[in-house]
Design brief:
The complex is a heterodimer of chains A (about 325) and B (about 325). With about 325 residues, chain A is mostly helical. Chain A contains 15 helices and no strands. In chain A, α5 (about 85-105) packs across α10 (about 200-230) and α13 (about 260-270) packs antiparallel against α15. Classes of the chains: A mainly alpha (about 325), B alpha/beta (about 325).
Chain lengths: ~325, ~325
């Protein structure tokens, strides 16, 4: 990012071809209708959920309770009365859509327009194109989400008049980074399909199918299968720990869906009172002080989720990389 | 001393069961205009992709300006300008912007890039369309913009794959003239692939005939015809009619006549269709043929000697003539 900003000032030295591609891709994104539509959609979402958040945020309660003063502000992103989803639920839903929309025709449209063979016969490495497309879309997404989050924070500040604490602000920043990472995963899925499938429509459909499967059908399937293996709640299950093991297994299986990882991680980050993502026994809870966790402790809880998301993103990237590097580039 | 620019050694490329390029050996020297002539699907485009490192060879070696396109792709692509048969541009950008994008990818400083782009747009006759969006260009205009796009990086080799498709005849002439002029003035090596033999004949110093993934002959037009028609450098065409004036058809005595013509000294092969005989000869013996026809009791309506142009070569090799049948 820094490189991108500082390079053009030195006019004597021409820009590195990689940044030329990134610059062109960013310009393409920003000028495209698709982006404008998505931008307004996500903008509307923000203001919708800001409204929900403000209506349900309540009043700052006394120190020591779950919604204590120091993290009161964070409720802006999570509070809901059930009629409209909160900001994080909206993002869990719209983030993938944004990622898919920005990536599904990344490579195959260049191929269909006949620009790919022209571009790759220039002295650039083949991966510049793939990396350039990814970085450009990521920069645009990051800029978009950071400005939206800051906008929400600012508006929230004006309306409720209670500023976030430094720790709360850090949590908001981490949350935004996490959102960008989550969208980056879906962007990579879409880019992978755009390398794999010749028709943009096919690749868009595939990406949406994968997204639907992972967010809607996968949890249903897991729960259905889990029911068959559920231990008898009346018997010894609770005592010998098999119920706990069972619950953990189901949760872990659910976590193969990136949406679950994202909602686990955001919930923990934005609700400092969440201290575990799985079931806790009475023994574990006994004696615990109902105090909010520090950012470090929350991060510690979501570290596996974070790693999982990064790994999935990298995995998709590697796959598209491998299939693109060996691809034959024909004119149209 | 001729300096080799492109050296292809035993190059093969296989797609499943199809051998698209089969053991190709070819050397192209600096400053020459080489024509790669062959029918559709002969493997011309595949060979070009292999030269650029845009696809991987199954076997064999390629060297472009001393670099291997697979390992040193950047060095190769810095020196080659490639114009595909159906070149595409970013349609929501103007022609000028498209050229400048290429210039920036080649690390040409901005001012120089703008100046070069202006000059080239003028050379290819698109000066008036520089600021129009590339999406509004016609096919021929896109092709000409493609040539400017190739030239903006000052390549030492230009590879053109069917470059004149979709350009009107006047445009084709200008296009080819421009290429030849550049080659002569700046010593640029040009590899032109085409199935349009007249264009190839018009501009190329040397021609390679490409059929079924194999280079069956190469050389200038004269050398090529001498090589291909080694056994029968001369062809005599004779129109033969029966005594009643009708053309001699296949059923009535044509085989016998063909046989007797074959026995003539210096005649290699005889080929006939309705009333028209094509007689391949080692030397020019039209008088003997005329005499033999008269002796057999037929009339001559036509007797002409033909030289081997590319047309002849093309016809013979690409459209199912004998030798093609043997090589395939």
């Amino acid at each position: 990012m820094e490189k991108l900003l500082s390079r053009p000032r030195r006019a004597a030295e021409p820009l590195h071809p990689f940044w030329v591609i990134v610059g062109k891709e960013m310009a393409d994104h920003i000028r495209s209708w698709r982006f404008i539509i998505l931008l307004s959609l996500i903008g509307l979402t923000c203001f919708g959920s800001l409204y929900t958040g403000l209506n349900n945020i309540g009043t700052p309660k006394a120190e020591g309770t779950a919604a204590s003063g120091s993290f009161f502000f964070l409720q802006l992103f999570t509070a809901t009365d059930g009629t409209l989803p909160s900001f994080i639920v909206f993002l869990n839903f719209l983030g993938p859509l944004l990622g898919i929309a920005m990536g599904f025709d990344a490579v195959n449209s260049e191929m269909n327009r006949g620009t790919l063979s022209r571009l790759l016969s220039q002295p650039v490495h083949r991966d510049y194109l793939l990396n350039g497309k990814f970085v450009a879309a990521l920069l645009v997404i990051a800029a978009l989400f950071f400005s939206l989050t800051f906008l929400m924070t600012g508006l929230g500040l004006i309306f409720i008049g209670v500023p976030p604490t430094a720790c709360g602000f850090l949590r908001i920043l981490t949350f935004t980074l996490l959102t960008v990472l989550y969208v980056a995963f879906w962007l990579n899925v879409a880019i992978l399909f755009s390398v794999r499938f010749r028709q943009p429509a096919t690749s868009a459909l595939m990406a949406i199918a994968v997204w639907l499967f992972l967010t809607v059908f996968y949890p249903i399937l897991i729960r259905l299968a889990a029911k068959a293996f559920a231990p008898d709640p009346g018997g010894m299950a609770l005592l010998d720990g098999s119920l706990i093991r069972y619950e953990h297994t189901v949760l872990n299986l659910l976590r193969f869906a990136p949406g679950q990882l994202f909602s686990d991680a955001t919930t923990t980050l934005l609700m400092p009172s969440v201290r575990s993502l799985g079931p806790l026994t009475m023994d574990q809870v006994a004696g615990a002080i109902p105090n909010p966790l520090s950012l470090g402790e929350s991060m510690f809880i979501v570290w596996p989720q974070l790693t999982g998301l990064i790994a999935a993103t990298l995995g998709c990237f590697v796959l598209s990389y491998v299939s693109f590097m060996r691809k034959e580039i024909r004119a149209r | 001393m001729k300096e080799p620019m492109i050296i292809i050694d035993g190059l093969s490329k296989r797609y499943g069961n199809l051998l698209a390029v089969n053991g190709l050996d070819l050397t192209i020297y600096k400053g020459e205009v080489f024509g790669l002539l062959g029918p559709n699907g002969a493997g011309k485009s595949t060979t070009i992709l292999l030269l650029l490192g845009l696809t991987e060879a199954t076997a064999g070696k390629v060297s472009v300006c001393g670099f291997d396109p697979r390992r040193q792709a950047i060095e190769v692509k810095r020196r080659i300008g490639y114009l595909p048969d159906d070149v595409g541009f970013y349609e929501n950008r103007s022609g000028m912007e498209n050229l400048l994008f290429t210039a920036r990818l080649n690390r040409i400083p901005k001012d120089e890039g703008v100046a070069r782009a202006r000059l080239l747009l003028e050379q290819v006759g698109l000066a008036g369309y520089a600021d129009k969006k590339a999406g509004t260009y016609s096919r021929g205009m896109r092709q000409r913009l493609g040539l400017a796009d190739v030239l903006i990086k000052s390549p030492s080799i230009i590879i053109l794959d069917e470059p004149t498709l979709g350009i009107d005849p006047q445009g084709v002439r200008e296009f080819l003239d421009l290429i030849v002029r550049l080659s002569r003035e700046q010593g640029i090596t040009v590899l032109l692939s085409s199935h349009h033999l007249h264009q190839v004949q018009q501009v190329c110093d040397r021609v390679g005939l490409f059929v079924g993934g194999k280079l069956i002959a190469e050389g200038d037009i004269d050398a090529l015809s001498a090589k291909l028609f080694e056994s029968e450098p001369f062809v005599v065409e004779a129109g033969i009619a029966c005594s009643d004036g009708k053309p001699l058809s296949k059923g009535e005595g044509a085989p016998q006549l063909a046989e007797s013509l074959c026995r003539l000294e210096g005649v290699g092969s005889v080929d006939y269709s309705d009333g028209l005989f094509r007689i391949g000869c080692v030397r020019d013996n039209a008088p003997a043929i005329a005499k033999a026809v008269m002796d057999a009791g037929y009339g001559l309506t036509l007797l002409q000697k033909k030289s081997h142009g590319l047309d002849e070569i093309y016809h013979r090799y690409f459209e199912g003539g004998g030798p093609y049948g043997k090589t395939a």
